[in-house]
Design goal:
InterPro entries: CheY-like_superfamily, Cyclic_di-GMP/3'3'-cGAMP_PDE, HD/PDEase_dom, HD_GYP_dom, Sig_transdc_resp-reg_receiver. By secondary structure, the protein is of the alpha/beta class. It is built from 17 helices and nine strands. It has helices at residues 2-10, 24-34, 47-56, 73-83, 98-108, 120-160, 165-201, 212-225, 230-242, 252-256, 259-265, 267-281, 288-296, 317-331, 343-352, 360-373, 419-432; strands at residues 16-20, 40-44, 61-65, 88-93, 112-115, 384-388, 402-403, 409-411, 437-441. The longest helix has 41 residues, at 120-160.
Amino acid sequence: MSAATDSTQLEPPTPRVLLVDDEVGILNSLRRLLRHEEFEVLTAESAEAALEILEEKPVELIISDARMPGMDGATLLAKVWEKWPKTIRILLTGFADLNTTVKAINAGRIHRYISKPWDDDDLKETVRQWLQFQTADRERQRLEKLTEQQNAELQKLNDQLEARVKARTSELEQTADMLDLAYIELKRSYETCVEVFSTLLTQRYPLTKQTNKAVISLARHIAENFKMGELEREQLVMAAALYNVGKVSWNDTQIHKSAEVMLKTERPAYQKYPTQGEQLLMALEPIQEATRLIGLHQERWDGSGFPNGWQHEVIPPMARVLKIIVDFVELQCGLLLERVLSRDEALVFLRKYAGRWYDPGWIDRIVPYLEREAPDLLELNPNLRALTTAQVKPGMELAHNLHAASGILLLNRGKILSQPLIEKLAAYETSEKARYTLFVKINEPIKEANHGQPAAH
């Protein structure tokens, strides 16, 4: 109890948030936005003034503008990381400056960056969640210290009372069980923190492209279904939660592009993201093996993947499994191919590329499981429906591009269906001997049909 009490007494009565910007108007706007929050707000008009405040009093979270006269935000946050590594660091930028962002990530180890103009609710929620994360992390450290103290006390008692070991065996076993439970709880808390960070990471994506939650869920269920060991399960789930952290430096345009498009137009940027993710997480000792899986999850069975071009059993087994899970989810979100696939189409794709992209042994085990257990991700989005040509009605709006079986683009996303269009699509189906799946929006009123024609190439 004394250790816990001492740890609590060392904490400030209320958290402090330091805002740094050379524009007084920006500082005033941020102060007004945060004035009703349950923390103290401090402000500084330069990096030097911010460092002086940090020398005088503890600060839990700092938000710094990227571009300031003299010392810029990235340099300031790097100094904060060096002297006060436990302070949460957030970069506020009004420029699409990849170099500044990369510098802040690598040198300042920032936890998040926010673009100007910011969304008020998003900014407040970001600050709240990171302060909650810090509180949880402090509690974890307190419990670890308490566990170390208890272990030391147990060792001392064991040395002093060796003659009475038999009489005290039952009590010591009970204490050991409690410590095991405490250790399990600490591991669970760490996993929870990682998943919270993963959730924050996905906030840059539109709702239909937020994959992390589905990838984590599939990784956890596959690990349980195939009776993986505890260590393998932990590594796979941790890697699933953070597999796309290397995309944090991408701009908004890149975030919305599919891998198919980026590999044609921005191949170097896309091929670097697994390695960048591994580098960003390298300092986190408890997830070193998961970090390695993140760096290798885009390797392919035939050696055509990246970053190393490894093939077959050289690729770690869990990296091969993660590749299958990620592609299955991203195929249904339009992040792998330009065309969004349904669940069944994604399963066909996995089988088609077994022996090329994917380990055929794992495909033979995982795909039947996905056929039985994995939901169609479209079912999780209440605003979309997957319909056949016979089911669509005039006035419905396409939510995704429609391609023919040959791959030719027929209709663009946002197209309003008309009766002549629907009839022409039915004719195309007959000529191709195919069946089209149209993803339509259902949350908007039916609009007057547009009598345009499908795109032909």
